[in-house]
């Protein structure tokens, strides 16, 4: 034996540690070698139908592919954002076709199910494959086996292959719009507030909404502000409108929100300086700066190398009104008028307010709803005197009398521009909706 003849406990322990370390290094080497791309065919043209759905089920319906993205921050890989069953999906393979030499490579995937699954059997997952050297594949196919007919496999376009200069400073990711969403007035107000604060693009993962809401979305799409990503997740899985597992037979929580957020992050990684992860009824309101650009310039100078800035959520109950800004022409529009709700709930004892984020997408690997899970930089909690999230919704502390609420009119700083902009949208959409 390697350790024979060693009499002292110290020497024996040192020997065991050395052997264990050697075995661990050898194992990691084998693991990496097993994931290296291997040529399986030569002299073939890339075939197979191009996938064109937002959510694509693989054979067996335990794996769902959203989209692949090129990621060279650590090594040259294709990272597929997907949804998998956390126990049943053990092996997947990426099939890369390299032109013009026609070589087909296969890579064993690393399947990384995100830790924030909240008990549901299906969760967001990164499916990561090493790419072949001397090849920049434009498409990838996914299979449960290293064997098969390439003609029968769907091909997915690999996004982010070419680095781009940022086309926008701020992109808001909203996931997901479901439940026949019809909060039209508050949605328009949020959109116009985002634009006032400096947003150029809003990406919405849409499951369904009302007919009137469709008209509003069409207006913003034609304006160039909104990008809609169809999100028919309930065609594939039994979805819950709750974030935590209720043991009610559902497969995934909150309409697959976490998967959509991660896809939105990577989708905008090369085209947006910042990505904002919040809901349509939430607005990050700066208290010390006129807009988000000035706020983020200041925050980045104070916190170099930060990947995520987290803003504290505060509830402004939609049942508590101020009679100011009761605009009669808005009363026929479905939804909440946020200008009338300027009373916020006080902090609850022993309850931490959740946070939403503005992130540098190139520094984030995985995100959840209220924090990033993996990143290359630190996360910073932004003090409430710098900014807070205005969240107008149903009260969480319904028993509180009005006198116990805090009057906070920060939103009214923007009332002139907001009213003018909302009236412009309504004049161009609601009149058409009545025709």
UniProtKB/TrEMBL annotation:
What PANTHER family does the database record attribute to this sequence? GLYCOSYLTRANSFERASE FAMILY 92 PROTEIN
Native organism is Cettia cetti
Q: Which family does it belong to?
A: Belongs to the glycosyltransferase 92 family.
| Keywords from the UniProt entry | Glycosyltransferase, Membrane, Transferase, Transmembrane, Transmembrane helix
Membrane topology type, per the record?
Single-pass membrane protein
Cellular component, GO, one term: membrane
- Main localization category: membrane
User: Which protein are we looking at?
Assistant: Glycosyltransferase family 92 protein
Residues crossing the lipid bilayer are: 9-30
Q: Tell me where in or outside the cell this protein is found.
A: Membrane
Which GO terms fall under molecular function for this chain's record?
A: glycosyltransferase activity
- Enzyme class at the top of the EC tree: transferase
